[in-house]
């Protein structure tokens, strides 16, 4: 009996040690708090559940979501007018998009299909299959970079969609989950953090977050009625500015991300992080129930801010 109790005790100590090791933070890098400097405010279709946004030839390409309402659009970046629209199959939930050469690649949330279109005609020319959820996607000139709600970015071949590698996103020494819409600019990935008004600036080689952009306060109180979360980042290389918007927002904002003089060098209060992973290795995102509950339009009377 004594030998059995000793064995059980040692086993419990071993399990406890492993559990404690699981919560040990990994190394982090100093990062900045940035603000948005608004240059101009432009109209945006309030019915658009924006999932992806990208400039091409001076116009905007926009992916919208919601089952039965998902679309691919070409939008006038100055007026917000919808110039052309392609509807997705009724059972598809549109997600992020990016451009590779003369092709648009548009993700779907849980359908496991990436639609491929001709960038000039919006005619569908191909599709890729993948496992898991699709959230955001961008192109760094060599590889596709994709988010799925977990604390990981998945790098894919832009012509076969095969997985090349995965990289965990690290913020304040812990994995950062719910990175959503993506945009690649000057060696960094900018990603909306779902359920927040924040955008993370991520080093794709290391996964470390180098800055957090606070994009709160863009909409007036009246404009916020019935809207959903901030989502959509498009880089305009011609003006070196970003265009950002949100799901069902009535406006888009041309902005720069600036470093205010009073900014602390290290952010003390992190956005949503994954406490039960310590190195950013592959993991699952939020539960299906939680993702679905926020994916649908949020009534203004519900009191929910997502």
Mind telling me the CATH class?
Mainly Beta
The shape is globular
Strand content: 35-45%
As residue ranges, the low-confidence spans are 4-25, 263-270, 275-306
Q: CATH homologous superfamily?
A: TolB, C-terminal domain
Radius of gyration: 20 Å
Q: Secondary-structure element sequence?
A: HEEEEEEEEEEEEEEEEEEEEEEH
- Count of structural domains: 1
Please state how the strands of the largest beta sheet are arranged side by side. Answer: 16-17-18-19-1-22-21-20
**Alpha-beta content class:** mainly beta
* C-alpha termini separation: 56 Å
Number of distinct helices: 2
CATH topology: Neuraminidase
Q: How would you sum up the major sheet? A: 8 strands, mixed
Helix content: under 10%
Using the 3D structure, state the CATH architecture. 6 Propeller
Q: Overall pLDDT, averaged?
A: 83
Q: Quaternary arrangement of the chains shown?
A: single chain
What does this entry show, briefly?
This protein has helices at residues 2-22, 288-295; strands at 32-43, 50-56, 59-64, 71-75, 82-87, 94-100, 103-108, 113-118, 124-129, 137-139, 144-147, 152-156, 163-168, 170-171, 174-175, 179-185, 188-193, 198-202, 209-214, 230-236, 241-246, 251-258.
């Amino acid at each position: 009996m004594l030998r059995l109790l000793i064995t059980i005790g040692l086993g419990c100590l071993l399990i406890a040690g492993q559990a404690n090791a699981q919560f040990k933070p990994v190394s982090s890098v100093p990062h900045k708090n940035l603000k948005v400097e608004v240059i101009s405010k432009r109209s945006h279709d309030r019915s658009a559940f924006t999932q992806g946004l990208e400039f091409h030839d001076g116009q905007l390409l926009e992916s919208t979501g919601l089952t039965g309402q998902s679309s691919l659009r070409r939008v006038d970046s100055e007026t917000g007018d919808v110039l052309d629209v392609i509807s997705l199959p009724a059972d598809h939930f549109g997600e992020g998009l990016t451009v590779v050469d003369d092709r648009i690649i548009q993700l779907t949330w849980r359908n496991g299909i990436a639609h491929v279109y001709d960038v000039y005609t919006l005619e569908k020319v191909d599709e890729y299959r993948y496992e898991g959820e699709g959230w955001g996607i961008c192109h760094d000139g060599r590889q596709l970079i994709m988010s799925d709600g977990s604390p990981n970015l998945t790098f894919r071949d832009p012509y076969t969609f095969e997985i090349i590698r995965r990289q965990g996103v690290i913020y304040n020494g812990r994995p950062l989950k719910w990175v959503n819409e993506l945009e690649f600019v000057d060696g960094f990935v900018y990603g909306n953090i779902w359920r927040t008004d924040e955008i993370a600036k991520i080093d794709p080689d290391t996964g470390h977050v180098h800055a957090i952009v606070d994009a709160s306060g863009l909409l007036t109180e009246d404009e916020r009625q019935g809207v959903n979360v901030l989502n959509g980042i498009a880089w305009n290389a011609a003006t070196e500015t970003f265009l950002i918007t949100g799901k069902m927002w009535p406006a888009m904002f041309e902005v720069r991300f600036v470093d205010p003089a009073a900014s602390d060098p290290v952010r003390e209060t992190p956005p949503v992080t994954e406490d039960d992973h310590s190195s950013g290795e592959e993991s699952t995102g939020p539960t299906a129930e939680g993702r679905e509950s926020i994916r649908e339009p949020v009534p203004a009377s519900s009191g929910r801010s997502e």
